[in-house]
Hints:
The structure holds two protein chains of two kinds. Chain A is of the alpha/beta class. Chain A has twelve helices and 13 strands. In chain A, the strands form two sheets. In chain A, strands 1, 2, 3, 4, 7, 8, 9, 10, 11, 12 and 13 form an eleven-stranded mixed β-sheet that branches. A two-stranded antiparallel ribbon of chain A has the order 5-6. In chain A, α4 packs across α12 and α7 crosses α11. Chain A is globular. By secondary structure, chain B is an alpha/beta fold. In chain B, the strands form two sheets. Chain B has a nine-stranded mixed β-sheet. In chain B, β10 and β11 (370-377) form a beta hairpin. Chain B is globular. Chain B starts with 5 loop residues before the first strand and ends with a strand. The model of chain B has no long low-confidence stretch (mean pLDDT 96). Chains A and B meet through β3, α4, β8 and α10 of A and α2, β3, α3, β8 and α9 of B.
Amino acid sequence: MRDVAIVSFARTRAHAGVRETEAQLLFPVVAGAIEQSGIPRKEIGFTCSGSADYLAGASFAFVGNLEATGAWPPISESHVEMDGAWALYEAWVRLQHGDVDSALVYSSGICTRGDMREVLCLQNDPYYLMPLWADHVSLAALQARALLDTGTVTEADLAEVAARSRRAAPGNPDAQVSGDVTAASMAAEPYVVSPLRTGDCAPLADAAAAVVLVAGDRAREVCERPAWIRGIDHRIEPHYPGLRDLTTSESTRLAARHAGAGDAPVEVAEVTAAFSHEELILREALELGDTVEVNPSGGALAGHAVMVSGLVRIGEAFRQIHDHGRRRTLGHATSGPCLQQNLVCVLEGDG
Amino acid sequence: MAERCAVVGVGQTHHTKVRDDVSLAGLLREAGHRALEDAEMSWRDIDAVVIGTAPDSFEGVMMPELYLADALGAAGKPILRVHTAGSVGGSTAVVASHLVQSGVRERVLTLAFEKQSEGDTTWALGGGRSGGVGAGGYFAPHIRAYISRSKAPEYVGWMVAVKDRRNALKNPYAHLKLPDIDLEMVRDSPMVWEPVRRLESCPASDGACAMVLTDEAGGDAASKPPAWVHGTAVRSELGQFPGRDPVNPRGGRDCAADVYRQAGITNPIEDVDVVECYVPFSWYEPMWMENLGFAGPGEGWRLTEDGETEIGGTLPVNPSGGVLSSNPIGASGMLRFAEAAMQVRGTAGEHQVDGVRTAVGHAYGGAAQYFAMWVLRDTKP
């Protein structure tokens, strides 16, 4: 595979109730990522984005986001109706061809204008599951319950994840919630859907993010410390929660193996856990030992932007290499109810 | 480029107004199964799936790859879902070909679909609650501008409608079958969006299309002749701003120039044997003939008028019957790409054009602002 690196990352703050359009959220992050990359906009060979029409409540909503790229003259461009992490995957594949050396990846979502517990029901099988209006929080609670029932995890462990995410977030100005909270205070909060309490459920946010990828030596020319994509892979599992072992994440395990996550230890992992118990499942599936720092940004639990969170995690994993001098980090994205689909991206700095 | 890419299997459903005998998953499986059968493969042989469809609101299923994962044999595998408006069927095939050409995957199943009967696509195409004119209302002024610029006689649009519907009679999968169609019938059909008459418009269809793409080893091993990918290109441009020409969009011209350069095509009308292009309203045939470089500006309609775009003409266009005869929107672009593959492989049956060595597949979408193309040949690049 051709060496491809992330050389820049820009994101908006995770924030509920933005007044802007998705395109308006994207303008500064697209401009920011391009400027930071040192690659002139006209030289960018491929552009790929991720978003979902259903967040905007309008068909073809992503078309308006093209404004933020200034697509004139016409650009070579694609869009996935998926989290931006999958747009990054498509761009990475595109850069393997060798005819273009750089790509812009962006992602946006304004989810707080709708009711996600209603909207995300539409992700379920339209014939058998959707009519039950089994919302994503209830499905997550089923998964959490299954995990608790194994006896290896307690509600106190969930509260610990919730508290740690919020305690990590003050160092991250982009996070939505943060604070010096304790596991005890998290455990005292009311249930949203048992066994998930307020702190176990990520606050939903509106956000946009952008990344620039550059291949080969050009990445070193434009970036002092690029984060090389050492491996990237994604896998999906059966849709029906009843057909899966909800206490683990086989697709994460597979993606991690194919991305070579276990080839060498990672120092930091940024995982998309929108619920506390998901982090515990992901830690196990990714085989993250106690020495691995998980979600120093606060993770999705400190602000979860639907369709953007996965790309943000990869961006935060990039920052750990680029800004904080780490050697090897991991970014994870997920899609669908109960961690149905997962993507793992392993990044490395030089030296 | 790390790898060559071959189309070794093509499948599609019988496109029709309402497929209430199958679920969404059943519809896709039908196309997927036929493509796999054509490739002499099973679901198990596939190592990645790429699906495409137009807006999720058309069927009311958000991010349908999640629900479809089981039915498409994707559990444990990677699945991507592409959405680039009307061009999506084409862009989806392009993404699938890139997975192979990059060397990342060896055998990719790609599918595109629309089950228009599940929802109200006319409403959704008009912007849903925000209200709008819909596709025909949007494109009609561009068509009027084309006619005014080119001074094309009005019967050219009728001719395209007749030709594509007659081609559809030869295609067992086509939706609209109008055995008696002639110029008078088109002329006398109701005016829908001036100057587009009802029979100059595409139908609303349920349908799916699928292709199996492999690396060079897969193409070599195929028992039926493969179609080799010689070029792929996509282009997007802003939909509205002063200075843009929506009648002959630069994105389409750039896309064609890019894909021709990759395939070594210098004189398109000479070098290409057949074109399947996205013609949802009759006038888009002459418009795209110019946009894709098969005719000079203002001259595209002459190819139609002279019968050159018929099967047996210099450049047969849409021998399948095209979008005018079958329009499962999300699949419509892939059907163009798939028909190009069938023509190159010599598997198009009654609508086979003689001696095809080089075929072009084309799709467009949005406000005529998204473009996807590929060039296929019967020989390796």
